[in-house]
Amino acid sequence: MKLLRLSIVDNLDIREILDWNYYIDHFNSCIQKIITIPAALQNIRNPVSRVPHPDWLHKRLVEKKKLYINKKYITDVFNSINKQTYIDNN
């Protein structure tokens, strides 16, 4: 084990050598890209609850929701009036 600079190789366990935090973070990132982010953008509850959504996703979902709230229909912008009222005012 020259690479790790270990002189004793008797009780070597691969789990002690690996940087588990790196691999867990990388795996969580892959799960977010493949599963949780697309689910959130489709308004589906997080299917993998152990992998939290990224921080930026909440802001994007709030902006998306505001877009739908601010939409107005043509009937909201224009009101109908009686024909006789229109003639009397002009």
TrEMBL record:
Domain (DNA polymerase epsilon ,catalytic subunit A thumb) ranges: 7-42
GO CC annotations, alphabetized: epsilon DNA polymerase complex
GO molecular function, one term: single-stranded DNA 3'-5' DNA exonuclease activity
Chief location category: nucleus
Entry's localization field: Nucleus
Any one Gene Ontology BP term: nucleotide-excision repair, DNA gap filling
EC number: 2.7.7.7
CC cofactor: [4Fe-4S] cluster
Enzyme class, broadest EC rank: transferase
Keyword annotations of the record: 4Fe-4S, DNA replication, DNA-binding, DNA-directed DNA polymerase, Iron, Iron-sulfur, Metal-binding, Nucleotidyltransferase, Nucleus, Transferase, Zinc, Zinc-finger
Catalytic activity: DNA(n) + a 2'-deoxyribonucleoside 5'-triphosphate = DNA(n+1) + diphosphate
Homology family: Belongs to the DNA polymerase type-B family.
Main function: DNA polymerase II participates in chromosomal DNA replication.
Full protein name: DNA polymerase epsilon catalytic subunit
Natural source organism: Rotaria sordida
